[in-house]
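Forwarding these from the shared drive since the link keeps breaking.
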Amino acid sequence: MERSAYLAMAAEQGRHWWFVGRRRILAAMIARLGLAAGARVLELGSGTGGNLAMLARFGAVTAVEMEAQARALSRDLVPGVDVRAGRLPDGLGLADERFELLCLFDVLEHVDEDEAALQALLAHMAPGARLLLTVPAHPSLFGAHDRELHHKRRYTRAGLRATLEAAGLVVERLSYMNMLLAPVAFALRGLDRLLGRERALAAGVPVAPVNALLAWLFGAEALILPKADLPFGLSLLAVARAGDCG
């Protein structure tokens, strides 16, 4: 991502409907995992730290982020948090540390070697550990917004499962998310193609009533996803464990 994008993310991550809704869903999913008190939690590609306070409700958090500016912003946001320099697939700087929960929230699509990145995480999974991951779905939607965010790809459901399994992980849950807003995104993308135009999604936080409505629509999936999969959506969510965890 561009440095300007990190600054925008830091400014918006506390209130933008997409970040608010996603955190609500992720918190509900983590609560369902039943982590022990004091569990060790790792977020990889933690960006400007928008998830760190939420993750800290579930255990002791360590974060890894490659961009120095993003690390500085996240330390300002959550003072005292353990934020380290590192990158996937190698150069994580975690030595032999292991964690009960490893989180990759819209990170894997930025990595050239996605399978190797997932394989690198196996060495840091404690017995019984879970990986919680989200990625953008539907390669047909790939466009200016993805290029602006330096995405390498969007995933199909089958493709994400295959990548996880090839890396040595067992997929326990694999669902779409952001279902209610997906028809709007597909309609806008279809209109852009019909008109021959290429544009990124609108930046910035919408006006308060619209922002609140979108956050509610997206975040409402927190009531469903911990218990059942969604058949369609703009993103994919997966829970996986190491193949030798039984």
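-- next protein --
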Amino acid sequence: MAEDNVVSIITNFENINPDTVFASFVIIIFAIFLSKIVTFLLTKISEMSWKYRLYLKTIIPLSKVLIYALAAYYILASVFVLSFDQLILLSGLIGAAIGFGLRNLFEDIAAGVVIVMEKTYQVGDRVQMGDYYGEVKDIGLRATRLVTPDDSLVSAPNNLVFTQSVASGNSGSSEMMATLDIYIENDADVDLAMKILREAVVTSRFVYISPTRPVVVLLNDYPFYKGLKARAYVNDLRDEFVFRSDVTRRTWNEFYKRGIKPPKAYIVNHGNTAG
């Protein structure tokens, strides 16, 4: 039975003519065009609806996978007129060929499907993928595009989810925890410094405070200096970096007025961000 199907598949492909090639080409172009339109519309709608922004963006990679899958199925089933058994057998043959010859590509595509189906991270999330960190702008079948803090667009291979840890800062939520570290002299007025830092955090126009999203200011004592760590949530994850800059700037402005100075000793970065 399998041999008959292989022969039938080969026969079908031997009958390829300009019409079938042209039809397949048109379907592929249409799928790409439709995918871009859907992505554009969902992105625009999501930006106009803050409440459902991240939810709408999670539909983008799912819609692209569905469009490309339907296009591939239509080409094989309607253009080349393969039966269901032949489609299954052909999928196995293609999978074996990819596994032997294009392993990295296969891993990227497989990882892309896993990311979309299991929602490892979503469009709009702030993620750390290996050495890459930024906001997820697009999840493709081969790579994930991230916008880094310095506004660079980076394509990170999807197979990083199989080989390295991936951390999401907000996990689909519009709010996100942002931390910042500030270091002061060892003999500085710690109570006053913590009070100033907390005041700068809670008065920031980017902060989001609720019973489940409190502001926390911690003190760390090091041999030659003291470290203050602030933990708070931003209302919109896209404001993470401007929030840190805003709080750091206003904190140090007040510190200098009150005679609180940075340490003179060399500082080792004990946290995610040095203030």
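The chain is about 50% helix and 20% strand. The chain has a mean pLDDT of 77.

- D.
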